[in-house]
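Technical note accompanying the year-one report. For the benefit of new consortium partners, we illustrate the data format agreed upon in the data management plan: each record pairs a sequence with a structure-token string. No post-processing was applied to the example shown here.
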Amino acid sequence: MNRHPDDSPADAEATRLIHAGRAPDRFGGAVNIPPFRASTILFPTLAELDNYDPKMRAVRYGRTGNPSSHAFEEAMAELEQGHGAVSFGSGVQAITTSLLAFTRQGDHVLIADTAYAPTRSFANGILARAGIVVEYFDPCIGDGIRNLLRPRTRVVFLESPGSLSFEVQDVPAITRTVAAADPEIIVMIDNTWAAGLLFRPLLHGVHVSIQSATKYVAGHSDASLGAAICARPDHWLRLKKAAVELGACAGPDDLFLGLRGLRSLPTRMRQHQETGLVLGRWLAQRPEVTRMRHPALPGCPGHEYWKRDFTGACGLFAFEIAPVPRPALAAMVDGMRHFGMGYSWGGFESLILPSTPNSIRTAVPWDGGELIRLHAGLEDPEDLIRDLEAGFDRLAVALANP
């Protein structure tokens, strides 16, 4: 990374992300670090072979790290202002490795009821079979988390906002309460919605911040990539050791794409936010919409915490409509011109996804209507509005002619 004298002014965030993890002087002046497709690493002497130290981020074997992963991890640590990062092949791999790194048989884990479905699947499956007790809690619990802590609680896992129903958690209240009860408990968060840019969990008492860099960091729907970032050296090293033991690593080409996407992240996020707010405010005026679930708009659960703790919004949000027959819902969403239907988000393209959170909620039953999640891409907002308007028209026709 290009460094400035200590007495120079601090660079703006967008500037720092342009330069983070780069080393043109090491690669013939190339602006981008090339992808390192290497498994075998040679050592010139036995002494160098014997003196490998993972804390020095040295290269030993392709799976344990190489210049591509080191550059990506340096840039991600810069983004989230952490001690270091560990890169993974996907966000799910980052989540599962982080949970395994800090738990053992007999431990108790608390997970927000808004957690990403694959997180719940792993917790209910592999963690439970390993003898780890999993309990879900109301994401709006705040300092009430104290009533759920047990002597064997080892991890509190947050996701804020939830990626389906978008409740924003009072993260500072939770971390203060947990630290006061037992400073050894690890607080983790899935920070994918904020892309590490709009919310800095490590500055609010969280120990491990995880995100799927597949989403906004890569930004082009062409990479499978995840990263876990932690605040203190001992947490980083524990995650790194767990990743090596589990064989978890990211491919060089995905790392290259993640670094490429990171350079334009602040610029893209501003457009995602702008378009998402245009759509959200328009939807809030529609008679079909019974509730908006956009963290940056009033009425979303935890909106006040978003205003206090976040510096902006991304393009992912949802709205509710009254329950409708499945064929009528299909008439609305099947004919979209610009909104594709798919499970991912964070790319340049807009997406639409009907969802039923009641199927994955256990601590707080879902009492909302038909939930439709949108990802506002980089298309012109007026084109997206026309697409949604036509969808509502199709819905009305289908309801009138069952």
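Partners are asked to follow this layout when depositing records. The first helix runs from residue 13 to 19.
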